[in-house]
TrEMBL record:
Biological process terms in GO annotation: cell wall organization; pectin catabolic process
SUPFAM superfamilies per UniProt: Pectin lyase-like
Protein name per Swiss-Prot or TrEMBL: Endopolygalacturonase
Family under the similarity heading: Belongs to the glycosyl hydrolase 28 family.
CC annotations in GO: extracellular region
One Pfam entry name: Glyco_hydro_28
Signal peptide positions (record): 1-19
GO molecular function, one term: polygalacturonase activity
Keyword Iron: no
Originating species: Kwoniella heveanensis BCC8398
Keywords from the named record: Cell wall biogenesis/degradation, Glycosidase, Hydrolase, Repeat, Signal
Amino acid sequence: MLSLKSIFALLPLLAPCHAAPTKRCSSAISSFDDVDEAVSSGCDITINSITIPSGQALDLSGLGSGVKVTVAGDVTFEGRQEWEGPMFIIDGDDITFDGAGHTFDGQGEAYWDGKGSNGGKTKPVGHLTATCLMD
């Protein structure tokens, strides 16, 4: 029969082992040209203040699993070209998105013609496409 002292000595061996959490890598988007590399890196992403060229989307599809996207500056979409959008795409498994109080400015006034979706200028529809987000 085991003594109480022996049982307490063995308890640490019975506890589940937890590896120390690993620090995730990080990547920054500071210009539109940085987007593809940041997405393909599989790292957490910080989006700084950037301008998205007219007729282009901020495409964050194919993010690695568990990626956290943090917005650290306002994102502005140039509104000079008529197109159908979407303007912003985010896709991946177990993604956390933190807007941190910043704005996505779609330049709606550039598309405003008083006709809504019933004619006039072609307007981005489906401004945002998002799948598999946590927050």
